[in-house]
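In this section we walk through a basic example: taking a raw amino acid sequence and producing a predicted 3D structure, encoded as discrete structure tokens. The instruction is simple. Fold the sequence below.
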Amino acid sequence: MDHTSRMVELLGRMRRERNGAVADAMRVCGKPYGLNYGVSLPTLRRLARAEGEDHAFARFLYEQDVRELRLAALHVAEPACVEAAEFDFWAAGIVNSEVAEEAAFALLGRSESLAELFPRWLAHPAPLLQYAALMAGARAARCPAAWIAPTVEAVRRNAVDPSLPAWAARLTAQGAVALLAACGAQNEENRQAVIRAAGSLGKLPAEDYVHEELAWRLEA
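The resulting token sequence is shown next.
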């Protein structure tokens, strides 16, 4: 079966699970999807995983401007195939916070290339790519202490950048908290490093958010 026929079959199964209430209640930062059936994430993940891993098919699905197909692609893709040559391809599809989160959860956090992707995307001017990198780092099996300082710097940088959309600084802060909490939970040395680095942040709203969240997440 070719990719188009297989996609049509998958989309048919997705459409039978459509839920207008989910679509209406959805709130994402960034661009809306071209088409959105409102399938719940647990259902979408179940249907996608039933397809098994097929990286070429995943790339085909990811290029469709349909919420369910793009998110399904992240579960069909093979983490081992996500290499540096593919970073730009996956970056192009991260149009909003939901895709960023699902990419981190299903694919990027499981990729052996995360160590190379993380600094590249964290330094990228697009806040959604920064967010995806931070969330992927938080979900990785190991969060290197070397990621702590650039994470805090990303929060500081976005907190004062007037050219960014209103949601960007808060989204970066949320991703930073997830990553810093994961790093700090690994051992006492990391916990103290996170506390010191976060302590260098100022009092802008996004920076305050990081202070407040880490205060209880990293309690001794």
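Looking at the output, two observations stand out. The radius of gyration is 18 Å. Residues 168-184 form the longest helix (17 residues). In the next section we compare this with other chains.
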